[in-house]
Specification:
about 160 residues, Nucleoside Triphosphate Pyrophosphohydrolase, 4-stranded mixed sheet, single chain, globular
Length: about 160
């Protein structure tokens, strides 16, 4: 049995079998752009946490959109970059309550492309050292997303750095 409790613009809350509350949410993508230990991120205000976050460029997969196409679209919109995308991780954001699956790509051979951020987004692109970002996240000075944490660990492992 499936009962819809709330059907919003971004999420749908359903109750399964009369007891399991599940948030249905579109899948998401994140894109890692790295030059050695330097990682490109987007600083933006996040209303849900009441502060700015620094995250790899990311966004939702539109209905009937392939995650790879969504990654390319998000990179064009947020960073005006394109290139060759490699899938490096795929995971559920929080499988205890949501069906959202996240795809992390790495952008190789980055090159400028046309793109415009969505009108309601306040974005600032910032390069950060992966280890410094990791330490700032760990002690709470920097807010981020799970896909960004995975991206940072990927860079640090590749660079042979253990935080």
């Amino acid at each position: 049995m499936r009962e819809v409790i709330f059907d919003g613009r971004i999420v749908r809350l359903v109750v399964l079998d009369g007891k399991w509350e599940v948030v249905e949410h579109a899948d998401a993508v994140g894109v890692l752009v790295a030059r050695g230990r330097q990682v490109l991120g987007v600083r933006q205000p996040r209303v849900a946490i009441g502060r700015d976050s620094w995250e790899v460029p990311a966004g939702l997969v539109d209905p009937d959109e392939d995650p790879l196409r969504a990654a390319a679209r998000e990179m064009a919109e947020e960073a005006q970059l394109g290139g060759r995308f490699e899938l490096i991780a795929r995971f559920y954001t929080s499988p205890g309550f949501t069906d959202e699956e996240t795809y992390l790509y790495e952008l190789h051979e980055a090159a400028p492309v046309d793109g415009t951020p969505e009108a309601d987004e306040e974005l600032t692109l910032e390069w950060r050292d992966a280890l410094e970002a990791w330490e700032a996240i760990k002690d709470g000075r920097l807010a981020t997303s799970s896909v960004t944490a995975v991206a940072l660990r990927h860079v640090l492992a590749r660079e042979g750095v253990a935080p």
